[in-house]
Design brief:
Elements: H1 3-13, H2 21-37, E1 44-49, H3 53-58, E2 67-73, E3 84-88, E4 104-108, H4 117-130, E5 134-139, H5 159-168, H6 180-188, H7 195-201, E6 206-212, E7 215-223
Parallel strand pairs: 1-2, 1-4, 2-3, 4-5
Antiparallel strand pairs: 5-7, 6-7
Length: about 230
């Protein structure tokens, strides 16, 4: 892939750029989420699995007294707004939370990072257990450009090929990795899901397809909402 094409792709997916496709899609996605959120009474308790305070700041959703947002990550992170709290934990086992403890479970581009299919099933089961509703976004396995490594069809390559490429090329946000074991870990760290698997682990979910150039780039899965009075994005 030429450097010019690679640069264009990075601009499209760079969340730091206000004019990037990624930010535009995220804002559209979040507008849809806010529309759904307007359908339920306040106060509202939201669990964001794998989220950050910065994400919610960018979406203009901080210091709302009647919306409490809990950020669950592998380690505690600092929060600066009154309606946020941070919890250290694992999305695959949220035993620290009760059944239906949260009005909404939200997660944006996280489930593809938690391990293999069994790990993803465990996370999906926990999301459905602790939340009365959920709103989950994840990239599409079959989109031709792998969104983390920005290389065509990278997700289809065998592990040995992925490891070789990570050791010899700068891919996406990853610089060349000299250490073989580290390259294997990075290659193993992301597992994109096709729609068929998402249907299995989130049974009965509504699935909205986010498209780019007519192709399905990612999925939004949502369930538990009164959806009779709104339109999907």
């Amino acid at each position: 892939m030429s450097m010019e094409i690679f640069t264009i792709l990075r601009k499209l997916v760079d969340y730091r750029r206000e004019d990037s496709l990624a930010i535009k899609q995220r804002r559209k996605r979040f507008a849809f989420f806010k529309e759904l959120l307007s359908l339920i009474p306040k106060p509202i308790r939201i669990l964001d699995v794998g989220g950050t305070e910065i994400f919610w700041e960018k979406m203009g959703f901080v210091d709302e007294a009647d919306v409490e947002i809990t950020l669950l990550n592998l380690s505690h992170i600092d929060v600066h707004h009154s309606n946020f709290r941070s919890v250290a934990g694992d999305g695959r086992n949220m035993s620290e939370f009760e059944d239906d403890e949260f009005d909404v479970v939200f997660s944006n581009s996280v489930i593809e990072h938690v391990g293999g299919y069994e790990d993803q099933k465990r996370m999906a089961k926990e999301i459905q257990r602790v939340g009365k509703r959920y709103f989950i976004q994840t990239p599409n396995f079959y989109f031709p450009i792998e969104p983390h490594f920005l290389f065509p069809f990278f997700q289809f390559f065998p592990l040995a090929v992925k490891t070789f490429m990570l050791r010899h090329f700068n891919l996406g946000w990853h610089r060349k990795i000299n250490d073989v074991q580290k390259a294997v870990e990075i290659a193993h760290s992301i597992r994109l899901l096709p729609k068929s698997e998402l249907k299995q682990i989130f049974p009965g979910a509504n699935i909205y397809e986010e498209r780019f150039w007519g192709l399905v780039k990612s999925f939004i899965l949502y369930k538990g909402w009164n959806i009779t009075s709104h339109n999907t994005p």
